[in-house]
Amino acid sequence: MNEIKKARRLIETNPESGAAKTLATLVRALESDEKFALADLYDLSYDDFEIAIGILKEWRLDRYYASKAKLHDLSMQMASMVRN
Q1: What is the pTM of this model?
Q2: What pLDDT sits at residue 77?
Q3: Handedness of CA 6, 8, 14, 18 (dihedral sign)
Q4: Rg of the chain over all Cα atoms, to the nearest angstrom
Q5: Which residue range forms the structural domain that includes residue 49?
Q6: Which own/partner pairs from 9-18 qualify as long-range (CB within 8 Å, at least 24 positions apart)?
Q7: How far is the C-alpha of 36 from the C-alpha of 26, rounded, in Å?
Q8: How many domains does the chain fold into?
Q9: From its phi and psi, is residue 45 left (phi > 0), alpha (psi between -120 and 50) or beta?
């Protein structure tokens, strides 16, 4: 199971836990470019820390693919402008 799904399940099943709050804050920070205190990750258990690191990896990979798609769209627009 991917880490984002693990985090969602953890947040849904125990939203008042410190880990759920930290992971939710991490996701909000990634989505909105808010600041996130990295030191908060060290308060997590090892398993929850691994989920947080997995979220970072998956988020970065998704952002790479989104950037690649935007570049492709722009390239297609430029190609149509050149043809005209």
Answers
A1: 0.75
A2: 79
A3: positive
A4: 17
A5: 3-83
A6: 10/48, 10/51, 18/43, 18/44
A7: 6
A8: 1
A9: beta
| Phi and psi, residue 16, nearest 5° | -90, -5
CA distance 26 to 79: 39
What pLDDT was estimated at residue 33?
85
The sign of the torsion formed by the CA atoms of 68, 71, 73, 79 equals: negative
The number of beta carbons lying within 10 Å of the beta carbon of residue 3 is 18
User: Kind and range of the H or E element at 38?
Assistant: none
> Model confidence over 14-69: pLDDT tens digits?
999 999 999 999 999 998 988 999 999 999 999 999 999 999 999 888 776 766 66
